Structures are given as structure tokens and as C-alpha cells.
Amino acid sequence: MTENTVSIWDYQGKRIHMIGIGGSSMSGLADMLIKEGYTVTGSDKTLSHAVERLRENGVTVHIGHFPENVHGADLLVYSAAIPTDNPEREEASRLGIPQMERAVLLGQLMQRHDVRICVCGAHGKTTTASMISQCLCEAGADPAVSIGGRLDAIGGGSRVGSRHVFVAEACEFNRSFLHMFPTLAVVLNIDADHLDCYGDIEHVEEAFGQFLSLLPEGGIALGWGEDPRVLRLFSALEKGRRTYTFGMGEQNDYYPADLVMEYGCGSFDVMVRGEKKGHIDLQVGGEFNVTNALAAFAAGTLYGADAEQVCATLSDFTGAHRRDEYTGMIDGVKMYHDYGHNPAEMAGALHVSRMKEPKRLWAVMQPHTYSRVKTLFDGYLTCTKEADFTLVTDIYAAREHDPGDINSRMVVDGMRQHGIDAVLTPTFEDTEAYLRAHWQPGDLVLTMGCGNINLLNEQMQEHGDTKKD
Length: 469
What we know:
It contains 16 helices and 21 strands. It has helices at residues 24-35, 49-56, 87-95, 102-111, 125-138, 195-198, 201-212, 228-235, 287-303, 307-316, 343-354, 370-375, 377-380, 408-417, 428-438, 454-463, and strands at residues 15-19, 39-44, 60-63, 75-78, 99-101, 115-120, 144-151, 156-159, 165-169, 184-187, 220-224, 242-246, 254-262, 265-272, 275-285, 325-330, 333-338, 361-365, 389-392, 422-424, 444-448. Helix 7 (201-212) packs across helix 8. It is globular. The model has no long low-confidence stretch (mean pLDDT 94).
């Protein structure tokens, strides 16, 4: 039995074991399976808030990967970060337990829905998919949702709705999005990332083209009209597929007019082919969130939601967790966290923080995976230039092993050569001690990364204000 012949619907009421269940997407899919009547167990290498939430909901989650964890399972689901030599995957193979990759599961869950809105791109997927989901919820569309973050409006990262519409992030890592079935594909951008998988940007673009080719006749492609790669792929689409663009310029189908940025947040009229359709006052910062909101407006109204209602929802939208998230005040210093983990995302997040007009801006970077740091090394050396000070922790390995030829000291040295005031603080304890010894009231600290750097914010919040001698 091959992975592509396994159907999740043949296992209803049975036990599904999920390796890497603490991941943002995997934990959400676990919630969906539970609500669909499956018995779910799982394992992860570390304890996390996602694991704790699953355990509170009655899910048995093992910390560590051991062969016996899969005993008694009917189907094994694994994330793309789990290799074939994982002890649980090897044991499942020995026992003849069928296996399915996470993206295949997500594709099968969405396939039974009439409308499948899939949001792809190197940056902005979670925020835009969250915006669309909240818009459709408040419009009464009752969507099913799977996003790579937690959104308070849907109570987490997933939602089991009606069989009519499904909103999902379509991640390009390991070409996962090629297992999906979009009827409305939102392409936010095409950028160089996951080059350990693709090798170069040309192969990234090729994969996005393959994703768009999955659109059925009558399907809709909605993309950023200021990305030449997106436009090139749109021009190559088969006949019978409709295309729309969004962006800052009037050449797009959807664009802003009378845009005002106040403390980093955009206020603008929504224009559709020259006609005003509404007004949005964003509560999330950055010009990139103006384009994200335009994409969400387009997706929601193309689906059929009322334009005025969509504008109202987007004006109320406060963001998903770990996206420019305010985590508290310590010693008169505002603490924020952002999931940005490649140079372009971190530069954008810091630009938003700068627009909040802090006394001084601190960037705390946790580089993510050795392969990403190697392939995007030059970008890391200048991406924090808007900050007054930069602290760099050890690289978060995630799915990788230390190759021995790249480390955070090399990043810091390169930053200094580019005039950036950078310091290596390898551990969270080192970072906290340095911040408390050097920050001043009125400063702003932004921690960045998609590893566990958010726990630094929690750790510091628990410790509270610095105790004075």
C-alpha cells in the first residue's frame, strides 16, 4: 500500500498516531481529527504549549520518539520534518501500519469541500489565511480552517465547519502544497526560502507554477501584482482559470487609495478596478499587512461575502499569535514577538517596530535551521539594520543536525562588519541577562524566530521587573 492510496476516510473511529504533533499545523490537524470522531495519539521531541493543550483535551502525547509509541495505531501521520529513519516510522513499517504525510492528510480533509481557499507564499500565509477565516466566520460562511498559528477568533489553529468552504495555508516546504486541491489560490509572493529543498529560486517558482496548475477549470488565482514571478505564472495559466491581482499600485485589480500609515498601521479605501468598495483601518502594522488585507478582502468578496462586512472584520482584526504579538512590559520596556524567521520577514517586522517610535529598538534573533542560515547568510547580515542593537542566539536546529560549518558567531561577526551593533547571546539566560543589564525605559524588544524564542518572552515575563540591589 502506497501513501497515495491511503485514505483518511477509511479510518474513521480508529486510532491515528501523529509524529511531530506539537507543530503548529499538526496540532491543528489533530484537533480536526478529534472533532471528526477519530482517536488521536502523538509524539513530539519537546514539551510545548500545543502539546499541553492537546493533553488537556485528552490526547495521549509522548515526549520523545520511541518504537512502542505506535503500537496499536491504525494509521501513522508524520510531518515533513520527520525522516524515514525515525524510530516510530521504522516501527510502523515493520508492523505494516500505513503512513501518511501531513500535507496529504490536509489535502484529503479539504477535498470534500466545495470551495478550497489555499494561501501560499514565502511570507504572510498565516496572517492572510487568518484574515480570510475571520472574515468568512463573521459573514456566516461557517468555514473549515487549518492555519499554522493560533487565532483567537476560531479558538486555535483549526476549525471544523460546514462542508462548503475550507481555508488553509498552503506551505511550499518540501513541496507540501502540491498535495492540495485549491479552487481559489492566493499567491502572496514568491521568494528564496527552503533552498535546502529547492536549490534555487527558479525551482521555487516552478513549484508555485505546479501548485497553480492544480486549479480546476473555473478556478481563481489571486496574486500580488507587483511580483514579476507571480505575474509570469499567471500568464502561463491554462484557459478557463480567472486571475486577479492585488497590490499598492493602481495597475492591480485591488489596491488602496488615500493610504495613511499611523504608528505603522494602515488606513485606506479599498479600490476594485477604480471603484471604491469600502474602508479599512488596520490594527496590524506594516505595508505588507495592507497587501495581506487586500488579498483577504478579495478572497472574501470573490467568495461572496459582503464588502462592507469584510472591511469591518479586517478593521477589527488584531492578528494571530506570534505575529507582532505584544507580550508585556518589563522595566518600562515593551516586549514583542514575531514568527519571522528569514531575513525578509525579520526586516519587515523590525520596520513595523520602528514605526511604533520606541526610544531604542532591540532585535533578538533566533536563526532557524543551519541550512537556511547558510543559503540566506548574506541577508542575515543586514536584516536588523533598523534596530539599534541586535542580539543573536544559537541556531535553532529544528529537524537538522549541526553540520559544523555554520554557527551564530559567524552571523554576529558578519553583522559587525556591516556596521550593526550585534552581540552573541547563545542561550535565553544569556539574552535575558544582557537585556536587563543594558535596556532603558521606553525601549522596545522584538524577539524573532519560528523556533522556541517565544518562550524567552514568557520566561522574562514570569521573572517580572528587574530587582534592584
